Amino acid sequence: MAINCPMSTIFTKIIRGEIPCHRVYENEHVLAFLDVAPLSRGHALVIPKEAKAYLHELSDESAAALGRALPKVARAVLQATGATAYNVLQNNGAEAHQAVFHVHFHIIPKHPDGTGLGLGWKPQNFDHARGAELAKQIAAAV
Question: What domains, with CATH codes, occur in the chain?
Answer without folding.
Answer: 10-141 (3.30.428.10)
